[in-house]
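Subject: Protein entry, chain in single-letter code together with its fold tokens

Area: Proteins and the way their chains fold up in space.

Attached in line: The record itself begins immediately under this heading.
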Amino acid sequence: MEEQNICPWCYTEIVWDEEIGPEKHCPHCENELSGYRTMQFGIDRPDDDNEESWEDEEEVQEQADSGDKEDDSNGGFRQVNLSWLAAEETIRQITDSQDEAPECPTCREYMLEAGKQSISLQPTVHTVTGRAVVHSPVETVTYICPSCFQVSLILSPEARDQMLALLAPKE
């Protein structure tokens, strides 16, 4: 029986190809699978005769970390994005003050409301109901993920009410 691989970050089952081997990053949330709740101090550094392979591994890791760099001058600790840390409290305050804070479909962080927009569209009249699901223009709320910058549109509360009224059977 095959062992199930579950991402410790997003709890999604990870299925990998036997030819390629195990994943190093979750294909769903893109978090590192081997470093879950661990701290790496860099004390297990290979000997100098393997210096070239160490540099290759370090270069690959730098590319995977999307800009987070490991530097010997700071004891092997990975540098953190200070802008993200500085913004974290503000992000929390904004999400706390919002009426809704949907989760990002990509990384599951809470999303920030960016604004509303009115979308003009040619509504589809469905044969089941004989009418459209929404009337044009329809108002949406735009949300942006502060972590992965995914953008999502959600119907405004007024547009949701309008949609439900159009879908409800008329008596």
